[in-house]
């Protein structure tokens, strides 16, 4: 595990060293470390790059780390990770991704994560993305998340992209069975000439299923963001999507949330608001002695917290 | 003017007879009556079907009626009406459309209305659509509305499609200059196997411009509705779009409101909610002695009022 990977791991997974318990660290397209635990078994795929993560039903609150790092230019990493979460399991999956560029060539990570939650499984999925390094090459992260939630299962997805990622195209798709519940919290900040696209599609197929999706984003500099969400209610279900965006400098934000009620018993709502930081908020903080820049950054920190 | 036109006029324009003041009545693709007033002049186009309506700057609160009726099957009517509203004018335009079918062939009205509002012009535009008759042919109304609002002008658009229209595809586009304001209120109820598509695109180009769009719709039977709105903020401006839909029986509603902030000073919001009538509302009215059907229709009447 090289020094840049260590630095990236600290940023995306809050790890100072290899973690206790189960983990798989991916470095420049290869495995830099892997460990199983009593309840969580990780095996490499034989037909394509990636791993299978089997989480058994006795897992209770355990964390498993699946970070991926690209440490130099001219790497295009593609990985398929499948998570099989057994009935009754309760697990926290930490799956950050860091991309470092030192040259003119781009460094790119494409991660395709699939989740199969059995009855009553409980998953918290944390995904933090960052780009670092002084190279001029593009830092690109394109994650895809596919989730199938069986009866009564629960998945919470927390994704954060704070800085340094020049281009991202995120796709999240989920299908929910009876009484399953999906909570998505997305935070994105873009700056410079960055591009970020985020698309969600959630199908509420089972009675009593529910999805709650909230995206907070900040577009600074000349960056551009597109947010798409699609919630499809096919039965008695509830869906909520919310997109709040702050635009600064010359940032551009595009929000396209879509609702489809295919059943009279589907109850779907969405809200979106795009605007700059309210003047009165700035003035209030400036009255307390902060400069305008400090006040701005305080407000943004709170918004993305 | 035949008897069916008279009946349709009553339904779409609340007219019992030809109105006072300026009007143009279109019947099965031809003119069934036309009258100018002191301030409003209507002239037929020479290059294509339709009329030019010139509203001078001294018009103060005057109504002009531009209804169109299709009274039998196998008519496909296409009309281009252009409204030139002079600086300072204040006018109410009543432009309903009624379609009657007596046979197996469809009857169809496509109306393309363009509005050119000069500085400070004030327009209220009322558009009511209805389909009647016992024929099995489709009753189709596809209206397009294009509006250009100069500095400080105001346009309010009230559209209502209550029943009998088997298929509609509505398109409304507007461009707003400095301090111009556009208010759109749409009401649609569909039943049977009806299809309704409604798309709005509003560009807020001038400083201080604003758009406020509210759509209320009810989808009953096996009807399907699609609502699209797009608000594009290119400067200091405010945009609001709201789509509330009630689904009943096997109705399907699809809402896709889109916001684009191309300026840091654009403040844009939207909301949407799709669901069935709340149980507690029904129960409350039933406690007061109404049957379930009566309670339902009371709630829907209120929602579409």
Automatic annotation (TrEMBL), chains A, B:
Domain (SUF system FeS cluster assembly SufBD core) ranges: 85-303
Pfam families: SUFBD_core
InterPro entries per the UniProt record, alphabetical: Fe-S_cluster_assembly_SufBD, SUF_FeS_clus_asmbl_SufBD_core, SUF_FeS_clus_asmbl_SufBD_sf
GO biological process, one term: iron-sulfur cluster assembly
Family: Belongs to the iron-sulfur cluster assembly SufBD family.
Identification of the protein by name: SufD family Fe-S cluster assembly protein
Organism, as annotated: Caproicibacterium amylolyticum
Organism classification: Bacteria, Bacillati, Bacillota, Clostridia, Eubacteriales
